[in-house]
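Practice problem: predict the structure.
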Amino acid sequence: MEKAGFWGYRRPDGSVGIRNYVAILAVMDNVNGIVKNLGHMVKGTLPIPVWYGRGQFGADDVMFRRAQAGLARNPNIASVLVISLEKVSAEKVAAAIAESGKPVEQFSVQDIGGTVEAMAAGLRKLIPLVSAASAQRPEFVPMSELVLGVECGGTDTTSGLAANPALGYVADRVVDAGGTVYLSETSEWMGAEQILAKRSSSDAVSERIWAAVRQIEDSAISRGVDIRGANPVPDNIRGGITTIEEKSLGAIIKGGTTEVRDVLDYAVKADGKGLYLMDTAAPAAESMTGLAAGGAQMILFSTGQMNIMGNLVAPTVKVTGNPRTASRLADNVDVDVSAMLTGETLEQAGERLLAFSLAVASGQYTRSEILGDEDIAISRIEPTV
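Answer:
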């Protein structure tokens, strides 16, 4: 029997991509127009516009640049063209990306002569990058090469009963095969953090879990918000969720049942294999951006009532356990596991989801890719100065 795996693209740092994009990365938002226009003009490219990118200092700047460079270093990116308004930031971001060993080109609009010259320069730099990427052929690799992010949104009662356990089944299969899984959304561990802490690889990791939850609750309280009173949010309540504990117990199972190796900061890549927690905000765009910047090649996204968003860099598989959602929003659903509510076993649903995930890893498009429901949003700490 053939060992489970997928067809992917080997990178200079040893990682394996499931897509083979040439990224066009905006360093700051005032060059987004050039980045998007180049993306429209050049086949095989992935424009990555950003918001902000200037007037940020200290920890905020560190996190923003780490996420930005991490997106470009993601294994799904074959090479990168970095564009900024001025030279210093272009060189700084390009140097951080080049540490991965992948080809990087860069220029600044002010130095090259404005928009028209930037477009011409971009075209000339992209032609050889796209040509080289298109010549690369995928190779079959084992599931141990997979870095999987798990996410949820539009949660309802079927999420905890069906979709999240199906994600957890796949997460366990990936970890058991020697791969890596990221579980994010720190505020959605609250009420179940003690379960994750008991599964930690060490007392130090356990304390990091408790500290991450305390920090996010203290931050909310400092702004006059009580997460324990504001979560579940109205659409969760409409979907039948009654308490934060109920929501969190359903949320953490999507990471599976294996040992928690460590807690990662936002957009930080794991230095080993297994299950890791990533300290992210709950909104899907920010959370998934952190996962992709941390090296996740793919994201499994459970959604009871349907959140249509996918990540721009990491193909996002939409999974629902709600039969009404599977019918009413069928165009956005990749895998329907609602049969679990009427007798399909976890193993049966989990194996279906795993098979689809490996197909996506080998090149099949997700619904969010096909429909263009993809974006990024890098988290912020402080207001712009």
